[in-house]
Design brief:
Layout (H helix, E strand, L loop, with lengths): L2 E5 L2 E5 L13 E7 L1 H6 L4 H15 E11 L3 H8 L6 E9 L14 E9 L2
The protein binds S-adenosylmethionine.
Length: 122
């Protein structure tokens, strides 16, 4: 599995659940995740992989920076790992009604998206 990150106009593909030596610590002020956390949590060994994924993002996020995650996952399934005491970020949860998203309708049975906003503390 791959993810493309635009690092100052250089596209890099990598498995974000592996150690990310290529990316410097605290080098991103904003990280946008649209359903990648969801995908990782559905993979084999999801607990270990999700932990490594979040550790990677936490490490590369600069103090004061934001990791914004758009997810189908309800807070009870996402917050236990996102809010781990290992992570020095403040977590805000937003609930978005799918009926208000411009209208493809309810393609699944869930009525909401969730947006998790992690702001890393200084
Ligand atoms: C549901 S798709 C969402 C794609 C895109 N963000 C969107 O909203 O259209 C999940 C994405 O997560 C990526 N992904 C899954 N596991 C990954 C991993 N271990 N490392 C990097 N990317 C991963 C997949 O390649 C896929 O592009």
């Amino acid at each position: 599995m791959t993810c493309i990150i635009d690092v100052f106009s250089i596209d890099v593909e990598m498995d974000m659940t592996e150690p990310l030596d290529i990316l410097d610590s605290e080098s991103f002020t904003f990280i946008l995740d649209k359903a990648t956390l969801d995908c990782v949590t559905c993979s084999d060994q999801y607990g270990k992989k999700t932990q490594q994924y979040l550790e990677n993002l936490h490490r590369i996020l600069a103090p004061g920076g934001t990791y914004l995650c758009v997810s189908h996952g309800r807070p009870e399934t996402r917050l236990p790992q996102i809010s781990s005491s290992n992570f020095k970020w403040q977590v805000e949860t937003l609930k978005v009604n799918k009926k208000d998203d411009g209208g493809v309708g309810l393609v699944d049975q869930e009525q909401f998206y969730y947006v998790y906003v992690m702001t890393k503390k200084y």
